[in-house]
Structures are given as structure tokens and as C-alpha cells.
């Protein structure tokens, strides 16, 4: 019964999205997905779940999606198996290939890439570097995109905050807010990430002043845990809600944690993807 109620609510949301009169609006689906690095993990090794990641993308058909923790071999597999998507992103270790990628993928039939790049969450953001008390180099990929149907432009940013450094998370997020305002002082922005923090954390104060939290704003929403650690019981753990989508100058219609469907493996990652549907 719960599933039926959710489906009915989602259907009403979609009807509202596509029945707008007057000025043309864009319907967009955004996914944030920490794929988990390709090494180790035994029965959950990337080779045993990589096909399930492709199945998830084909099933959801996001307009845009951002990855966290994607190693070069994972990037190669995803690019080869998702030819309908263009992408942008570099390795965080050398700014070229090495290390984890915070890549952004966009559906080529619907979206055109106008501009984009990468900066590092550090005191020297233009070069591969580790910032403040971070355990790792952390980067943010940004894009300026255009919807082909209407010509409307928007900005999409994707990152992964440090899992250890408290100051690094705070200062890294402040830098992202600063850069977002520089890239597009006004207009639509989407930000996805594994933030490694609950949104009640004070590090989000500056971000909340300029962007909205899709989980909180969408009329159809989902508050389940996003970090599963290969254990489905973590969906009910409020401390595991660490993957978020923020936005500006758009209307959120639904927000979901993709934890209910088997895409061909018990787990597609140690994180569940999160998805937002919106118009702008």
C-alpha cells in the first residue's frame, strides 16, 4: 500500500511538471552517486557490481549525474557503457587521470556542455592539493550547461567532502559557495555530493543561505540513510544520511534514495544513489 501511495504521489508530481502553461520550463532529473572505489570489498568488488551501476542509470535515465570515488578503470567502464552521455572530470591526484574522479555526466540528446572545469578544496584551488586538515586531496567538478529544448542555461557542481578533516569540510564547502556565486551570480545551480556530514551540521549554514536542500523542500521526499556500508539496515540509521542534493532557482518535485530495487547485484555501492526531479 505504501508503494502505491508513493507511486500515485509521484505521478501527480510528474503531471504538474509537464502541465505548466506560459513560459517554457525544463524538467530535469539529477542523481548523486558515490560508486565506491574499485579495489577490495570481496563479494562487493566493483567487477561484481559494475553492470548493476549501468542498469541503474539506464533504469533512471537521469538528465545529469555526478560521481564520487570513481577510479580511472571505473570511469573507462562507465564511459564505454553509457555512450548516450557526455562527461567531464579529472583525477584528483594529478588533475588528469590519477586518483578518484568527481565526474559529471550529461545526457547528450538533452543537454549541451558550454563550459566546465575542476578546482581543489584547498588554499591553492587551481592545482591538485590537499586543504586544511583533510586526509585526502578533494576536488569539485563544475559545469555550465544548456537545455537543448529551451536554451535555458544552468550550472551543475559535484564534489566529495573529506571524511576526516572537520575544517576541510567547512572551508571546502565555503569555497564551493564562493565559486558558485562567481560562475553564475544569478540563475539555476545544482550541487551534488557525498558531503560526509548531516545537513544539521553548522558547515551547511552558508550553503543554506544561498541554496535549498532537495530532501527538505520536495513535496515527495525520502529521509532514509544513504551510506549503507554493505548493510541494508543502515537505511533506517539517521546518522547515515550523508549524500545530498542542493539547488537554487528551481522547484524540487521529488527526492528519493535508490535503495528499494535490485539492479543486478545485492549492492551497487556502499552508498545508495540519491535522485531529485525538478523544473526550472
Report on this model:
The chain has about 280 residues and is of the alpha+beta class. Helix content is about 25%, strand content about 25%. The protein contains six helices and twelve strands. A six-stranded mixed β-sheet has the order 3-4-2-1-12-11. It has a six-stranded mixed β-sheet with strand order 5-6-7-8-10-9. Strand 7, helix 4 (about 165-185) and strand 8 (about 190-195) form a beta-alpha-beta unit. Helix 2 packs across helix 3. The longest helix is centred in the middle third of the chain and has 18 residues, at about 165-185.
Fraction in beta strands: 25-35%
N-to-C order of helices and strands: HEHEHEEEEEHEHEHEEE
Rounded mean pLDDT is 94
Number of helical stretches of at least 4 residues: 6
Q: Based on DSSP secondary structure assignment, what is the total number of beta strands?
A: 12
Computed over alpha carbons, the radius of gyration is 18 Å
Helix content: 25-40%
Task: Name the poorly predicted regions.
Answer: none
Shape: globular
Strand order of the largest sheet: 3-4-2-1-12-11
Largest sheet: 6 strands, mixed
The termini sit apart by: 32 Å
Structural class: alpha+beta
Task: Give the SSE layout.
Blueprint: H1 2-18, E1 27-34, H2 46-60, E2 64-68, H3 72-81, E3 85-88, E4 104-107, E5 111-120, E6 139-147, E7 153-160, H4 166-183, E8 189-194, H5 205-210, E9 212-213, H6 214-217, E10 243-248, E11 251-257, E12 274-279
Helix pairs in contact: 2-3
Amino acid at each position: 500500500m505504501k508503494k502505491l501511495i508513493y507511486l500515485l504521489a509521484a505521478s501527480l508530481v510528474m503531471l504538474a511538471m509537464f502541465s505548466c502553461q506560459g513560459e517554457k520550463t525544463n524538467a530535469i532529473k539529477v542523481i548523486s552517486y558515490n560508486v565506491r572505489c574499485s579495489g577490495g570489498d570481496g563479494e562487493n568488488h566493483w567487477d561484481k557490481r559494475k553492470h548493476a551501476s549501468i542498469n541503474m542509470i539506464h533504469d533512471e535515465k537521469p538528465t545529469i549525474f555526478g560521481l564520487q570515488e570513481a577510479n580511472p578503470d571505473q570511469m573507462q567502464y562507465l564511459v564505454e557503457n553509457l555512450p548516450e552521455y557526455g562527461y567531464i572530470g579529472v583525477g584528483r591526484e594529478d588533475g588528469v587521470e590519477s586518483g578518484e574522479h568527481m565526474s559529471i555526466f550529461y545526457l547528450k540528446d538533452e543537454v549541451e556542455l558550454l563550459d566546465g572545469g575542476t578546482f581543489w578544496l584547498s588554499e591553492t584551488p587551481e592545482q591538485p592539493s590537499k586543504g586544511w586538515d583533510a586526509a585526502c586531496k578533494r576536488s569539485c567538478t563544475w559545469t555550465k550547461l544548456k537545455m537543448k529544448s529551451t536554451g535555458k542555461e544552468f550550472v551543475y557542481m559535484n564534489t566529495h567532502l573529506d571524511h576526516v578533516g572537520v575544517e576541510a569540510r567547512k572551508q571546502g564547502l565555503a569555497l564551493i559557495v564562493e565559486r558558485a556565486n562567481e560562475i553564475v551570480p544569478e540563475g539555476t545551480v545544482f550541487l551534488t555530493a557525498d558531503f560526509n556530514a548531516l545537513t544539521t551540521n553548522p558547515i551547511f549554514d552558508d550553503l543554506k543561505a544561498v541554496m535549498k536542500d532537495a530532501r527538505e523542500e520536495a513535496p515527495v521526499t525520502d529521509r532514509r540513510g544513504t551510506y549503507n556500508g554493505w548493510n541494508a539496515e543502515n537505511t533506517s540509521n539517521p546518522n547515515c544520511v550523508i549524500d545530498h542534493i542542493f539547488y537554487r532557482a528551481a522547484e524540487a518535485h521529488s527526492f528519493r534514495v535508490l535503495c528499494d530495487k535490485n539492479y543486478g547485484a545485492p549492492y551497487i555501492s556502499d552508498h545508495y544513489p540519491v535522485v531529485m526531479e525538478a523544473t526550472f
